[in-house]
Amino acid sequence: MSVDVSFFSGAAMRPHLPALAVLRSQVFRDWPYLYDGAPDTERVYLSELAQSPRAGMAVAFADGVAVGCSTCLPLADAGAAVLAPFIARGLDPAAYFYFGESVLLPAWRGQGIGVAFFAAREAHARLVSDASFACFCAVERAADDKLRPADALPLDAFWRKRGYAHDPGLACSMAWKQVDTADKVTHRLSFWLKRLR
Ligand SMILES: CC(C)(COP(=O)(O)OP(=O)(O)OC[C@H]1O[C@@H](n2cnc3c(N)ncnc32)[C@H](O)[C@@H]1OP(=O)(O)O)[C@@H](O)C(=O)NCCC(=O)NCCS
Description:
single chain, Aminopeptidase, seven-stranded mixed sheet, globular, binds coenzyme A
């Protein structure tokens, strides 16, 4: 079965936000996020996207069914937690376009969809903003974390190949309930950046 990647922005994203919420809670249950999706957290996040007129979203469809999603929005429209390290470093949020998650069901991985997600979001950021950089953040996990699956592959090589460089000192905090915890756990997520122009 072939997969088509389509891109939506602004109000056109709205019909696809429920699929994004489902895919986030499915894909992020796995390492390294171990996210026990909560409807309230999803609602806040989805409303940030819906309220940002220049937000965009790539959706991978297999036979009309969404099997992957990837989002982006101007950093200035992202949540306070994401903005905080940029403000603390005296960086201008307008110079950055923030890439949210890429979530793709495992059965569809390894056929270039993740690459297409980056290309579509970078093209969108260049089209709708003057941002100099694309940025995203990823959770940090200890090398000896006992929950790490033996066959877990870090995505660092994938991101470097897309042209992103890690800035470990630029990091935000987010808390979520994990699949293995009763309460929320606070995590450090550090940023990766790429010059767009
Ligand atoms: C990130 C994700 C969307 C990548 O999707 P994908 O469609 O499998 O990636 P692609 O097929 O486009 O990969 C393209 C290239 O990256 C390589 N690659 C993919 N995953 C990789 C990994 N974990 N480590 C190293 N290289 C990797 C592929 O081998 C391929 O290399 P090539 O260009 O030399 O052929 C997918 O792995 C995913 O949903 N992961 C779980 C959620 C997640 O962690 N998201 C990122 C944080 S939000």
